[in-house]
């Protein structure tokens, strides 16, 4: 009970509040916990958050070590989104370039890993702001070359007002098929928010070439007013459980029925 209560205190804390504790965090304990195969994914993700506050630049290499452990032991869960965010925090521009190469621009990257990288960069740009949004937006632009994932980043580019991506997004729309309906919807909403005259012209062309896509996107605004976005659910495994949650720390909501000392979490 004490462990779960302590965990939930951090689950309720903001990243700013956790950062205020950086001088009190035991770096050696955090690293040991990260590498402990008995640690649950939720606790490991929390430790990545801790390490981003108390770690050294050289600790960025732990990301690669933990990923290797996961490949050797499928039951060892990295907590990939929090891990990538920590990797970027400690490794800076060099780490971000590695994330771009391995998870964003790489068409062979695992979907879940790419989803985690996008989520980590979103948190970096929204909450941490260690690297400029302009630079992070450049990272997300790599995903526009992968139509099956583009709807995950177009709303972020709109929120961050990255209008320099407009030409690429407009060109992408012309290559999309019906299976990319969500990407078309995100594109239309991006163009409606973009203040550039070229965006309005492109939108009018799409009203002629693909009126159903434009109509569907504009109808969605009735449910999500003011947002240049569409709801994007996290990917799920066969059991229906999300493998990549938000970088924010999930609360423990259930306690074990036996005295096993472990906490079931959702």
For the secondary structure, the number of strands is 0
Helix-strand sequence: HHHHHHHHHHHHH
Unreliable segments of 5+ consecutive residues:
225-246, 249-266
Shape: elongated
Kindly state the percentage of residues in helix: 55-70%
Report the span from N to C terminus. 16 Å
For the largest beta-sheet, the strand count, sense and barrel status come to: none
Mean pLDDT figure: 83
Derived structural class: mainly alpha
Please compute the radius of gyration using only Cα atoms. Answer: 20 Å
Strand content: under 5%
DSSP helix count? 13
Number of domains: 2
Which key terms come to mind for this protein?
266 residues; 59% helix; mainly alpha; 13 helices; single chain
Explained architecture:
The structure is a single chain. The chain is mainly α. The chain has two domains: 2-146, no CATH class; 164-230, no CATH class. 59% of the residues lie in helices and 0% in strands. It is elongated. The two termini are 16 Å apart.
Walk me through the topology.
Elements: H1 2-12, H2 15-19, H3 27-35, H4 41-54, H5 62-72, H6 80-104, H7 111-128, H8 133-141, H9 150-159, H10 166-175, H11 181-193, H12 197-209, H13 211-220
Helix pairs in contact: 3-4, 4-6, 6-7, 7-8, 9-11, 10-11, 11-13, 12-13
Short description:
The protein has helices at 2-12, 15-19, 27-35, 41-54, 62-72, 80-104, 111-128, 133-141, 150-159, 166-175, 181-193, 197-209, 211-220. It is an all-alpha fold and 266 residues long. Helix 10 (166-175) runs antiparallel to helix 11 and helix 12 (197-209) crosses helix 13.
């Amino acid at each position: 009970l004490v462990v779960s209560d302590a965990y939930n205190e951090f689950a309720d804390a903001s990243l700013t509040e956790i950062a205020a504790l950086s001088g009190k965090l035991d770096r050696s304990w955090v690293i040991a916990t990260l590498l402990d195969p008995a640690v649950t994914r939720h606790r490991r993700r929390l430790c990545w958050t801790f390490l981003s506050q108390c770690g050294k630049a050289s600790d960025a290499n732990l990301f690669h070590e933990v990923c290797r452990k996961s490949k050797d032991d499928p039951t060892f869960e990295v907590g990939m989104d929090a891990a990538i965010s920590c990797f970027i925090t400690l490794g800076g521009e060099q780490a971000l370039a590695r994330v771009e190469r391995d998870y964003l621009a790489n068409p062979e990257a695992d979907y879940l890993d790419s989803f985690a990288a996008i989520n980590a960069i979103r948190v970096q740009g929204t909450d941490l702001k260690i690297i400029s949004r302009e630079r992070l937006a450049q990272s997300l632009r790599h995903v526009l070359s992968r139509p099956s994932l583009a709807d995950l980043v177009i709303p972020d580019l709109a929120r961050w007002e990255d209008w320099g991506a407009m030409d690429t997004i407009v060109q992408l729309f012309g290559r999309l098929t019906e299976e990319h309906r969500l990407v078309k919807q995100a594109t239309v909403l991006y163009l409606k928010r973009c203040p550039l005259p070229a965006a309005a012209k492109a939108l009018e062309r799409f009203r002629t070439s693909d009126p159903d896509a434009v109509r569907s996107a504009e109808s969605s605004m009735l449910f999500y007013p003011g947002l240049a976005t569409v709801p994007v659910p996290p990917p799920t495994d066969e059991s229906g459980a999300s493998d990549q949650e938000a970088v924010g720390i999930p609360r423990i909501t259930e306690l074990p029925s036996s005295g096993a000392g472990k906490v079931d979490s959702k």
